[in-house]
Design goal:
30% of the residues lie in helices and 23% in strands. The protein is an alpha/beta fold. It has a single domain, classed as FAD/NAD(P)-binding domain, CATH 3.50.50.60. Helix 3 crosses helix 9. The protein is globular. The protein binds flavin-adenine dinucleotide. The site of flavin-adenine dinucleotide (FAD) has 45 residues, from helix 1, strand 13, strand 17 and helix 9.
Length: 447
């Protein structure tokens, strides 16, 4: 693909903008202890949130990561804080019951209510741990990608208000410019109970809180094998061995051969982001007048926002479905961004990066225990709130001797329905391009 060099600012960096403030590192890292009560694999939001809950309850907890702390998705995300499940998509396919024995209707209501609890939990955690991470609750705008999608959004607003009091409202095309400086969408939906934060500062705040709470933290300690069973696990890492009573797997989109069953149920999809140079105050205000996060309705979706300070745009999406060099994804994302905001033609890119999200075939996150190992996974691209919350729920489940407070516990967790799938999604470019084709067709047909 031809790269247009003029799109890149002289200070361009092929890494996350967020890392300017806090990059994945090894601060607080110590030697691996010979034994611990709870051993957690993965130092993203879910691992750290679980660790914090357990340590505050008096457990001895060790968190390890294969790389630096926060080396997975948690310092790479768009920082949109939302209810965390794709309302309406996964729900219809959700099988009958969960570990609490709720039937389908009760289950759907519980899952949705809990997604709002996940959103609220981020606010509580930020306040309780005094985390300075630019957490702003300025809401979200969801753009209708095709004319046919708008009536669905009108219905969705009513549904979200009835069940979850989400303070949602449909915005017709004629009023759309009060939310976004673009005529790209066919109207949209605003949700006031949504927000955004600075992902790597939020992560740093959680890491510091874990350190204060006495969690043992070990970076660059890839776990290669877990042997044994509950009460007597032996964990083999790149930095030695450790014995543990309980193990939590918090590896999400970076789940590998260590846990083949989990790996076979999630599809790691690359999500890519660019950040622009600073814009004039007037232009930035025109783009997103109310400072909301923006998402949209197609299958292959984009997500975007202004950065803290409200002068630069962050634009994220699926330029490609597998990892590609950052200058390639940057060029494609810039094109997508200027389709939505033609006024940004000529605005240069300062940062470009990507990371992996874990998609599940029912579009829902999952938690539970299998073969003795506790897990939470399947952020489906919206895990800032949900994975943080599920980390806490996994911890509560351990503290309550297997009794869970969460409707997400024990949902049937389907394998990826591709023969011989082993975590390498060779089929993604084909499926992804097919989805893109369907999106365009819908937009043309009804638009
Ligand atoms: C580009 C991008 C944009 C996103 N935007 C948003 C957004 O706007 N809003 C939103 O809600 N969500 C978003 N997400 C999703 C969100 O970032 C994730 O859901 C969340 O960070 C997942 O946290 P986690 O702790 O579960 O996993 P991660 O943060 O991915 O942590 C998993 C960790 O496990 C470690 N690990 C894996 N295997 C091993 C092993 N064998 N031994 C030791 N360690 C191991 C990895 O190194 C990694 O650090 C985005 C994600 C990406 C990549």
């Amino acid at each position: 693909m031809k790269i247009d060099k003029a799109l890149f600012h002289p200070d361009y960096k092929p890494e996350a903008f967020w890392w300017e403030a806090a990059r994945p590192g090894t601060e607080h890292s110590t030697d691996l202890p010979p034994a611990t009560e709870i051993f957690i694999v993965g130092s993203g939001y879910s691992g750290l949130s679980a660790a914090l809950e357990l340590a505050r309850a008096g457990c001895s907890v060790t968190v390890v990561d294969a790389v630096a702390f926060g080396g997975g998705a948690s310092t790479l995300s768009g920082g949109g804080v939302s209810a965390g499940i794709n309302l309406g998509k996964g729900i219809s396919g959700t099988p009958g019951q969960n570990a609490r024995g709720e039937d389908h209707k009760a289950l759907v209501t519980s899952l949705l209510r809990e997604s709002m609890a996940a959103y609220e939990f981020v606010g509580e955690l930020v306040a309780r741990e005094n985390i300075e991470c630019h957490f702003e609750q300025r809401g979200r705008f969801v753009g209708a990608y095709s004319k046919a999608h708008y009536p669905d959004l009108v219905k969705k607003a009513a549904f979200l208000n009835d069940l979850l009091q989400m303070d949602a409202a449909a915005v017709p095309f004629e009023e759309q410019r009060s939310e976004i400086g673009s005529d790209f969408y066919y109207g949209g939906l605003t949700i006031n109970r949504a927000g955004k934060l600075h992902p790597s500062l939020f992560h740093k705040g959680l890491l510091d809180a874990c350190h204060r709470a006495g969690v043992t933290l070990c970076a660059n300690a890839k776990v290669n094998a877990i042997e044994g069973s509950v009460g007597q696990f032996k964990i083999k890492t790149a930095r030695g061995e450790c014995r543990a009573e309980q193990v939590i797997i918090a590896t999400n989109g970076y789940t590998g051969a260590l846990t083949p069953k989990l790996r076979n149920r999630v599809v790691p999809i690359s999500s890519q982001i660019i950040v622009t140079e600073e814009l004039s105050e007037d232009l930035a205000l025109e783009l997103i007048p109310n400072g909301r996060t923006i998402s949209e309705t197609p299958r292959v979706t984009s997500y975007y926002r202004l950065l803290p300070g409200d002068r630069r745009v962050m634009y994220g999406g699926r330029a490609r479905f597998q990892d590609v060099p950052p200058d390639v994804s940057a060029t494609l994302l810039h094109r997508m961004m200027t389709d939505r905001w033609p006024q940004l033609k000529g605005v240069r890119i300062t940062h470009s990066w990507s990371g992996f999200v874990a998609m599940t075939t029912d579009a829902l996150p999952h938690m539970g225990q299998e073969d003795g190992l506790h897990y939470c996974t399947g952020c489906n691209g919206s895990g800032v709130a949900m994975m943080t919350y599920l980390g806490k729920q996994v911890a509560r489940r351990i503290l309550q001797n297997g009794q869970s407070d969460s409707a997400y516990d024990g949902l049937a967790f389907p394998d990826v329905p591709v023969p011989f799938y082993n975590g390498k999604p060779w089929f993604l470019p084909i499926v992804g391009e097919y989805y893109r084709y369907l999106d365009k067709k819908e937009r043309r047909a009804a638009g």
